[in-house]
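Batch manifest, entry 17 of 40.
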Amino acid sequence: MEVHILSAGGESQESSRLYRQLKEAGYEVIWFRHKDVSKEELLKQQPDIMLVEHGFSEVDTLGLLRAHEGTLPFPVIAILLERSTDELIHAFAAGASDVVDGSVPFKELTIRMEHLVRLFTRMNDGQPSEIFFEDLRIETKSRKVFRSGEIIKLTPKEYDLLVYLARRANTVCHRDVILQEVWGYDFATGTNVVDVYVRHLRKKIDRGRARKIIHTVRGTGYMMH
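Output type: structure tokens
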């Protein structure tokens, strides 16, 4: 599978090495070397995935993600110089779909890339451009979410989870199935990541509203109804 990659890592030896490795492995690569990249420029390239290196240069690459507020229509892997808990949280909050550290083996990185592309394609392939549930509206092309006409800013993974629930409205969604379909197979069964993200979603989608649409099915999972 051919993967088109945007690397926004700035001028550094690490960025140059990654660029060469990807080219030698047969990937088509576009390399953005500065932080002032507009969303329009990124969308013109229509990549399958974007790699964002953070901490390897003075370029604030996570700032690039934050500026687009999770609306880029492709997955993003953040490559961190230091993979501390704080940096991990920072990267996911900025809009990363996955996070690895700078020492990740190249083979593992390419496996993660291709897995994310397949997962992203499966979730969006052949689906309508808009999803409606009562006063909730999701624009799948722009990845924008509205409730009662008010735009709601979500991280990419919050958006993916919301779309998964919305496409199965009035159907019980089991935690383990959500984990596999939304996060893939990188997380071991037993993690509470689904519960954590549902809690985040509720704060943004339901808080302050008389009508709650995301509900817990005790001992099983969640349902939008």
